Amino acid sequence: MKKIKLFLVILFVGLMQAASVFAYSTTASEVPTGIAVGPGMVVEVSFPTMINPDGCGYSGAYQVSTGMDVATRKAMLATLISAKSTNTPVRVRLEGCSDRPLITYIFTDIYP
Questions:
Q1: Tens digit of each residue's pLDDT (9 = 90 or more) over 61-89
Q2: Which of 26, 42, 80, 98 satisfies CB 3.0 to 4.6 Å to 38 for a cystine?
Q3: pTM of the entire structure?
Q4: Rounded-to-5 percentages of helix, strand, coil across the chain
């Protein structure tokens, strides 16, 4: 019985640690206020309300994760430019940091 309890405790602790690895936050739906593109296809964006869920060193802009291929970053840049130019709100999923929060997904909120 003690072995079963110990196994369950170890399993629970392991699952809790694994869950924290996949933690992310999604922002409120807003229109981007600024977009910047730098060397190496680094894309940064700011919104009226900025959050910093992972305590990154800088929180004045988000960065599209450079861990994604260039084609994906270009598609995200096009989505952000379109949202800004058409005044369409978007939400972004933040996961981890460079020196700023990293964007891994962009969600458009277009309603009929």
A1: 999 999 999 999 999 999 999 999 999 99
A2: 42
A3: 0.76
A4: 35, 30, 35
